[in-house]
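Quick illustration, no need to memorize.
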Amino acid sequence: MEFITEVRLSGRDRAILRAVAAGDAELSWGAEPDLLLGGRYCCDQPAAHRLARAGLIAPVRVCATGQRVPARVTPAGMRELSAPALTAA
């Protein structure tokens, strides 16, 4: 998986990371993993895909394609969450 080195998170991206960090998040793993929050599919799958490709969210364990597994915020994701949010000028 290729990781993005510079990340600019939107407010929605940060909200998704906070939701995953709060628990009860799953990934349906595949080429573009789908994110479930509280058993329901996240309404912004493209954002979830970007966060996974950037290495900010990941499954808690190795899994097969199509398998649903718990999701976690990675250490890189936690750093992004703790960084001050960029505001529009």
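The two ends are 34 Å apart (CA to CA).
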